[in-house]
Amino acid sequence: MACVATAAFIAGPGTRAAATPSPAAPAAGASLGGYARLHSLAALSARRLDTARPVAAAKWGTGDPVEDPSRERQVLDTAALQAREAGADPGATVRIFRDQIEANKQVQRALHRRWDADPSVAPKLRPDLTEVREAINRVNVDLVRAIADSAAARAAPSCAGTLSAAESHVRRIGHLDRPRTAALTRALRSVCTAGAPRPGGPHSWSSGLSAWAAPLTMFIVQQQQVGVGAL
Description:
single chain
């Protein structure tokens, strides 16, 4: 029963899963392969943010702070180890995971403020934090793999615009609310390594969209033919 309750908390009442169907449009100058890899990274980041609600519920009313330095260090050390095993850059992986952790805490704090202001909307059940963290660990494994697989896309000059396009699609399909929208941007802050800062918002990719109409249509058709779409 505890596992069922924990899964319900991760989904949340009236929310939809962050996992998305086939990617939408890439930014001009990006490859479709690069866009798909960054889209996977953004979707996994949104899925990880879904765990902020059960974590916040497990801590709310107990006096336990949102910050847990010991747990955070464990996550970062494990991510670095898994990155080495996957042939990824441990330093880049840890930077991205630091942002993921901060984004998760950002959502937790927003939820605690809401529940403190109106206890009637607070969760009635307290999920098992150990079970929630096991779910987070499983997402972390996939996230490390996505970071490793997207190295070339993250280093490309077009990364910032491509990632913004992917983020916008994940946000729209996942119906992210305002706190999670802001947190997703925070979670993806260190993804691009090409040096150019990311555009200011998730809609900054639209100017080059028309150039991708034909290849995008072919890409979507190919995805549908092979049954690819879910993470």
